[in-house]
Amino acid sequence: MTNHLERNHSIFLAGPVERVFPLFTPIGETLWVDGWDPEFLHPQDGETRRGMVFRTSHGDETTLWACTDWEPEAHRMRYARVTPDSRFGFVEVACRQAGTGGTQVSIAYTLTALNEVGRSYLFELTEDAFERMIEGWKVRIDAWLLKNASANLAS
Asked: How far apart are CA 141 and CA 106, in angstroms?
């Protein structure tokens, strides 16, 4: 089993970059991810910025996150994340306006196992499994964009 892996996948979303990019912030993800309920440690209001720290729970796992790069003008962000009893990693999201009013989004994960539990997680995160996960994001985000076509997140 591997101790380290890198995965990336791109999706096309049916909305302009100004509406799509904020959906990848911790607050924005609450709009389309069931059960996503970040606990903001710094700043406590959840403002996305470099140095923000928050915690999430999923099942019996708790993950700590820190925003290491925040470039809203370039529509790019990067988070460091650690699930203490399993794995450490980075998640990078880069959005760019694509013709016809859509947005091309590139999502990259770099993960390192911290133990056998982490190695098992990495083993199961095949390229196909990662692609299915991100394509699932596309379905949920596009549904949210369609349902909220008149809303404007970029304020």
From this structure: 14
**What's the distance, CA 28 to chain centroid?**
10
Cβ-in-10-Å burial (0-12, 13-18, 19+) of 2 comes to: exposed
β-sheet with 39-42: strand ranges across: 4-13, 102-113, 87-98, 76-83, 61-71, 53-58, 39-42
Query: What sign has the CA pseudo-torsion 144, 154, 42, 133?
Result: positive
Residues 131-152: tens digit of each pLDDT: 999 999 999 999 999 998 765 5
Chain-centre distance of CA 58, in angstroms?
14
Instruction: Look up residue 155 and give its amino acid.
Output: S
Quick one: CA torsion of 41, 23, 67, 60, rounded to 10 degrees? 60
Tokens (6 digits) for 40: 């903001």
